[in-house]
Amino acid sequence: MHTLVMTLLIIVSIALIATVLLQSGKSAGLSGAISGGAEQLFGKQKARGMDLILHRTTIVLAVLFFVLALAIAKI
C-alpha cells in the first residue's frame, strides 16, 4: 500500500511541476510585481483557453498532492 501511494505521489508531483512550467507568466519585471497584484485582485484579466485548463489542472494536482502526502504520513 505504501509503495502504491508513493508511486502515485511521484507521478502527481511530476505532473504538477510540468503544468506549472507550462503556464505563461502573468507579468514580468518590477512593474508587473507592483501592478500585477491589483489586476489579479480586481479580476481584470480572465484566463481563457489553455491558460484556464492549466490553472484548473494545477489546482486539482496540488490538492491531490497534499492528500497523498498526508496519506503517506498516516501509513
Summarize the structure.
By secondary structure, the chain is mostly helical. The protein has three helices and no strands. The chain starts with a helix and ends with a helix.
Give a written overview of the molecule:
- The chain has one domain.
- The mean pLDDT is 83.
- The protein starts with a helix and ends with a helix.
- The chain contains three helices and no strands.
- The protein has 75 residues and is mainly α.
- It is elongated.
- Helices cover 80% and strands 0% of the residues.
- Helix 1 runs antiparallel to helix 3.
What does the secondary structure layout of this molecule look like, with pairings?
Elements: H1 2-22, H2 29-42, H3 50-74
Helix pairs in contact: 1-3
